[in-house]
Structure formats: structure tokens, C-alpha cells
Design a protein that fits this description.
Strand content: under 5%
Order of helices and strands: HHHHH
Number of helices: 5
Largest sheet: none
Shape: elongated
Structural class: mainly alpha
Number of strands: 0
Helix content: over 70%
Number of domains: 1
């Protein structure tokens, strides 16, 4: 009977402290991801290299089967910068590139593909026979 109570007490203690440990590691990973991004941007690095470094770190800290999506990682960095604005106040100006206009990006990509296709079709029309300089 006494052993059963001890086991229950141990399980209860583990049940209470495990979420605290997991939450603390996630928060520090998010904070450090934001710190990586902001420090690199402030140091003069471009957006892509700063984002890749921060995103890679956040993905590695997550662990498990499922990884953090780029959209979620960008949200975590934004939340950290806003929550800790006294620490990351200089980084607010860089947040706009973390959340680009996805619809506009898709439209630009479709337009680029359309232009590429038209160019390929135009190139097919001009084969070597039409460019023969000795044909009169």
C-alpha cells in the first residue's frame, strides 16, 4: 500500500514538472531563433541567410517526427520580437520579410512561368532555317 502511494506521488510529480521543462525549452528555442535572426540582420546579413540560420536552429530544437513549418517559425520569431520589444526593438523593421504577401508571390511566379513559356515558344518558331543568311 505504501509503495502504491509512493508510485502515485512520483507519477504526479513527473506529470507536473514535465510540461514545465518542455515549455521552457520551446520558449528558449524560439527566443534564440529570434536572437539569431535579429543579430544576423543587424550585422548586415541579407534576409535569406538570416532566415535560414534561424529556421534551421528552430527546426533542430523542435525534435520529434513533425518539424516546424516555415510559417510557424516566422510567427514564433515575430511573437518573440514583439513580446521582448525592449531586447529586440531594433529588429522590428526586419519582420516584414518574414511574412510576405503569399498571394502576390504566387501571381508573380505564374506570370514569370507564362513569360518563360512564351519565350520558349517564340524560340521554337525561329529555327536555323529561318535564320539562314544566304537564303534569298
Amino acid at each position: 500500500m505504501k509503495k502504491l502511494k509512493e508510485k502515485k506521488l512520483i507519477l504526479l510529480t513527473l506529470g507536473l514538472f514535465t510540461p514545465l521543462i518542455i515549455t521552457t525549452s520551446k520558449v528558449s528555442a524560439n527566443t534564440f531563433g529570434a536572437e539569431i535572426f535579429c543579430t544576423m540582420r543587424d550585422g548586415g546579413n541579407d534576409h535569406n541567410s538570416s532566415w535560414e540560420a534561424a529556421y534551421t536552429y528552430i527546426k533542430q530544437q523542435k525534435g520529434g517526427i513533425f518539424k516546424v513549418s516555415p510559417k510557424r517559425a516566422a510567427s514564433q520569431i515575430t511573437e518573440t520580437v514583439i513580446r521582448e520589444s525592449e531586447k529586440f526593438g531594433y529588429c522590428v523593421e526586419f519582420l516584414d520579410k518574414l511574412h510576405p504577401n503569399r498571394k502576390l508571390e504566387r501571381e508573380l511566379q505564374k506570370e514569370e512561368e507564362r513569360m518563360k513559356k512564351e519565350l520558349e515558344e517564340a524560340n521554337e518558331e525561329f529555327n536555323e532555317e529561318t535564320l539562314d543568311r544566304y537564303s534569298y
